UniProtKB/TrEMBL annotation, chain A:
Protein name from the UniProt record: ABC transporter ATP-binding protein
Keyword Magnesium recorded: no
DNA-binding found in the keyword field: no
Species, as recorded: Streptomyces levis
GO MF annotation list: ATP binding
Automatic annotation (TrEMBL), chain B:
Name under which the protein is recorded: PadR family transcriptional regulator
Ranges of residues in domain Transcription regulator PadR C-terminal: 91-168
Species of origin: Streptomyces levis
InterPro entries, sorted: Tscrpt_reg_PadR_C (IPR018309), Tscrpt_reg_PadR_N (IPR005149), WH-like_DNA-bd_sf (IPR036388), WH_DNA-bd_sf (IPR036390)
Residue ranges of every copy of the Transcription regulator PadR N-terminal domain listed in the record: 5-79
Pfam families, per the entry: PadR (PF03551), Vir_act_alpha_C (PF10400)
Family matches, as SUPFAM superfamilies: Winged helix' DNA-binding domain
Amino acid sequence: MSDDRPAPVLRAEGLVKTHHGEGAPAHAVRGVDLCVRPGEFVAITGPSGAGKSTLLHLLGGLQRPDAGRIWLDGESTDTYSEARWAVERRKRIGIVFQFFNLVSNLSVADNVELPALLAGVAPKQARAEREQLLAELGLTGKERSMPGELSGGEQQRVALARALVNHPPLLLADEPAGSLDSKGTREVMRLLSRFHQRGQTILLVTHDARLASAADRVISFFDGRIADDATLDGGTPPRRAGISGVLELKD
Amino acid sequence: MRLPLLALLARGPAHGYELKQDLEQLLGSAYPQPNVGQIYVTLGRLEKSGLIEGEDVAQSSRPNKKVYHLTDAGREALRAWFEEPEDEPRVRDEFFMKLALAPQTGLADQVALINQQRRQYLNTMRQLSKLAAAEDRDNRIAHLLIEGAMLHLQADLDWLERCQEELEELE
């Protein structure tokens, strides 16, 4: 089999994860194969408790699978230590979470620059990167603010800047609009789409179909397994039929 | 389309093409554009039932145009329209029939039906997202219309999810 395409940014095979807490063991991920190619924007949707966040945590090395393998840019992560995963999360994988996870006693500017400095980027360049990203995300003038002084939508934009400051080939987003209002959701959606258009590979976990519809591939996740994997064409619908029943022109 | 045309005429007299343009501008690109013929037919019917009256206005270089205005009966019909609440949106009963009856036929798999339907909704959702992105930011009414359609779809998708959960439990 010849395959000239570039190596997948992310590949997983046979991932399994069971949570052992109180009561019966929870089979969060039950045998998942997944391949994300450069430039793809993939959304994983499903009901809460389906295991989709656990899957994302496995893919970002935040949790370890009970079984299965993960490759980043074609490189096996089998032998990765915790420390190595932490390095990869600065360089090759950016992550945004539902609750932003900003460092509360660091300014906006420091939150964004920190991962760059930790990755060994010169302070001057880290500052330049930070300035550019914050401007792009409409946060100019908020550099000296503390996270607690910002709205949820603004905090998530800071988190996005932090995740992208080292230009990671892969962006993982775990319910990035989960604690935002409708306006904040639209904002996140617009920004993810914009970064994707510039070539950013994105893997998004969300229960919000509106957010998922920004992706060009949607994976439906049920009970720890992939139930469907659909490429959205987004073509133009026939005008006369109405965009959906709710927009049908009567009489 | 009868009542929306009456509502536009409540502002003041207008001719058919003006009404088409007003409607398009108000509702934006997500709303299926009415064709002008359809508007003229509806105006003819409204006039026949006494809700509006037309008056020919001479134009110098073109044929006469007909300018319509609302009658008292028309204003009354409009008032009655605003007084009545509308029926709730229909559940997608055709899909539900397929889902409910599939096992007995042996011709379709329920989970495959759900997946197929979800793809359809997701594609529509994507189209709506694109429409929203392309729509004039200041046209609040148009954006509300698109958002309404998206929320309906979201509910349909949630419901598909419920169907799937229920079926997986039966396995």
